């Protein structure tokens, strides 16, 4: 029996039951017909959709309706919004929603507003300072740029740097949110600091700031990991009261940590970072990646392994083997016992290292594009 | 017997007992020896000090100590900070701390940071919007400029406009303040909006932002009306934890409204505005100013009036008759019955109108100096 679990934007506990989470958060499952509609709209699907890595949404049908209303090469009827609270190095778990967001940007030719709430972790974690977040802000931006987002259509919004655009809008949101509302949504209490209480108002802002700046109401789609949903649930409640659309959203599950359950997290020292060397990766996978294999070679060959709980297989499924046929073959071979745990690990190490080699190369050249991505403050 | 009273930054109830307030808020009374020291330091006194209109302080001795450490014509060892939350037109009650602040600036050759928290009233009052505060922001700035502050040494800080300088610093303050702390200080509760809960952190910022921008820790003196003390009490608790000085402060009582008790307030329609015509002023004083005179002319001549509760006399005392000897003569003549209520009102109307004529003339030309006063955002 699965133990009790809890998911908030700052803390994940226990074994996550995503079906229960859908009901608890009130999001909609991504149905086969909706997946088909997305595929029909842009001419292809994405492996994260087909594999249920993105598994839930709010108002995705509406986004496709709006998108369908405009025709032509400059077609853009909604913008994307996602983000990253800088407080440590980027690990491969962070890449899941971003890789999918890049696909959405490419396929829908959409503007992307990428928020870097550099105050969030300062407010939420006792030992994190603005010096820490300033350091990681830049490092994290380089990772995002390295993923290949379109510099002409991607706008980095840094909370403290762009507060002259954001704070006023956040106050409008904040006026509509009471303490008892955030208490329930985020597990805050009377001993919580007043910055952490206010913060969700800042996270709401990128969902409508582009409409304010362009003076044209534009729908917003937020691809994000499911733990951020409490913020956007609140945002959806408030924005219509301010004359804006409710943002749509699409949620992914968490890339598991090496040890095997929950969410990959820097703070637990079980992560593979984008800057890891091939040796780091090999060592981490070989030493720590939880295996779904049997205890002995004989038993494994006879009874087969369990890819569903095997972390190496999960990393291939989430990120590093986009080819469904190849992944299926690995799944079957591992399950049948034909593929051994050591071979699966070796294969995963190679795939991750090939990905990271390319990523690190692009990351090296990313700094020159920083200014193109950061929103000009005199906009 | 005086009824119960309460004073918070957003609400004044009942008959204020300033002696009780000194104890309740924990401020220090301005003693004769401290007043003498101020006079000795700058070579003159100010009528608002002599008359007890400014009546309390925190750490004023320390400010004078710091000031005494530096010699020479460029002497400046502390800066001043005061403010105005725009939400309506400026009335003569607002002028009390500002007139004194100008005197402090002149006498101590001090920099002044003048905060316009244009979000405060939006967050605190249901029916006030940013459209309202934007309109009054400019109007209010013209009044401040018209009072003759030194444009080279005065810096207007507008919360939403300068949030790129302020929000990050406010977060540092906010991290040290819990909900239960602001609950007690400001009478907030679980139904309060999260912007109002956060707000006090923004009001703390000008007390140390100049030190951050100049990279030199500089003491701060805040002249303000006593109702703002809960903010600065919190500010004083927090700032040492961030490596800054506790700001010193000096508090004034409230100019009473025409009807006679509490605090002049636009929201009650009992105020004299800086833009009032001579006829407006005459009508308001004649019709509404609570009189300390007797019911009949005979009785007044015989028993005399009570200047202590007479609103016209109070306006002279607070603002419009800086000459102590003249004020004393009026006091005595009114008390003896020699001066009639009608004559006192007439005299007060003339004094207010002379002041406002000059103020309105300066206000007319103030707009050209706006940009010199507003802090450059790329500082």
Could you explain how this protein is built, in words?
2 copies of one chain form a homodimer. Chain A is of the alpha/beta class. In chain A, 50% of the residues lie in helices and 10% in strands. A 7-stranded mixed β-sheet of chain A has the order 3-4-9-8-5-6-7, with helices on both faces. The first copy, chain A, has a two-stranded antiparallel ribbon with strand order 1-2. In chain A, a hairpin with a 2-residue loop joins strand 1 (6-8) and strand 2. The longest helix of chain A has 24 residues, at 341-364. The model of chain A has no long low-confidence stretch (mean pLDDT 94). The A-B interface holds A 119, 122-123, 130, 159-164, 166-168, 170-172, 174-180, 182-183, 188-198, 200-201, 377 and B 119, 122-123, 130, 159-164, 166-168, 170-172, 174-180, 182-183, 188-198, 200-201, 377.
Radius of gyration of chain A: 21 Å
Protein chain pair with the most extensive contact, residues per chain: A-B, 39 and 39 residues
Q: How many strands appear in the DSSP assignment of chain A?
A: 9
> What's the level 1 CATH class of the largest domain in chain A?
Alpha Beta
Write down the CATH topology of the largest domain in chain A: Rossmann fold
User: What is the quaternary state of this protein?
Assistant: homodimer
Low-confidence stretches of chain A: none
**Main beta sheet of chain A, described?**
7 strands, mixed
SS-based class of chain A = alpha/beta
Order of helices and strands of chain A: EEHEHHEHEHEHHEHHHHEHEHHHHHH
How far apart the termini of chain A lie comes to 54 Å
Helix content of chain A: 40-55%
Q: Please report which band the strand proportion of chain A falls in: under 5%, 5-15%, 15-25%, 25-35%, 35-45% or over 45%.
A: 5-15%
Counting DSSP H or I runs of 4 or more residues, the number of helices of chain A is 18
What is the domain total for the residues of chain A? 2
């Amino acid at each position: 029996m699965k133990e009790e679990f809890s998911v908030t934007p700052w803390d994940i506990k226990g074994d996550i039951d995503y079906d229960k989470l859908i009901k608890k958060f009130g999001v909609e499952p991504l149905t086969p017909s909706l997946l088909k509609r997305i595929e029909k709209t842009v001419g292809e699907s994405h492996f994260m959709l087909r594999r249920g890595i993105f598994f839930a949404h709010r108002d995705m049908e509406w986004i496709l309706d709006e998108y369908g209303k405009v025709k032509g090469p400059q077609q853009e009827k909604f913008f994307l919004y996602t983000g990253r609270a800088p407080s440590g190095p980027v690990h491969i778990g962070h890449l899941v929603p971003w890789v999918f967001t890049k696909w959405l940007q490419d396929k829908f030719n959409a503007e992307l507003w990428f928020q870097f709430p550099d105050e969030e972790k300062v407010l939420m974690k006792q030992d994190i300072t603005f010096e820490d977040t300033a350091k990681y802000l830049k490092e994290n931006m380089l990772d995002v740029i390295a993923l290949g987002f379109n510099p002409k259509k991607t706008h980095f919004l840094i909370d403290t740097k762009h507060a002259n655009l954001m704070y006023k809008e956040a106050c409008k949101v904040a006026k509509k949110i009471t303490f008892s509302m955030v208490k329930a949504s985020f597990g805050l209490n009377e001993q919580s600091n007043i910055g952490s209480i206010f913060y969700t108002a800042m996270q709401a802002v990128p969902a409508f700031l582009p409409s304010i700046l362009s003076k044209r109401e534009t729908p917003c789609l937020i691809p994000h990991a499911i733990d951020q949903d409490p913020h956007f649930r609140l945002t959806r409640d408030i924005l219509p009261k301010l004359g804006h659309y409710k943002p749509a959203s699409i949620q992914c599950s968490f890339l598991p940590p090496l040890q095997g359950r929950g969410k990959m997290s820097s703070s637990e020292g079980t992560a593979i970072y984008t800057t890891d060397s091939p040796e780091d990766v090999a060592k981490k996978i070989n030493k720590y990646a939880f295996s779904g294999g049997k205890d002995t070679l004989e038993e494994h060959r006879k009874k087969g392994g369990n890819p569903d709980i095997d972390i190496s297989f999960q990393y291939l499924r989430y990120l590093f083997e986009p080819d469904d046929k190849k992944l299926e073959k690995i799944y079957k071979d591992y399950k049948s016992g034909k593929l051994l745990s050591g071979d699966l690990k070796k294969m995963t190490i190679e795939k991750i290292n090939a990905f990271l080699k390319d990523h690190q190369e692009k990351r090296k050249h990313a700094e020159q594009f920083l200014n193109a991505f950061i929103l000009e403050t005199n906009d």
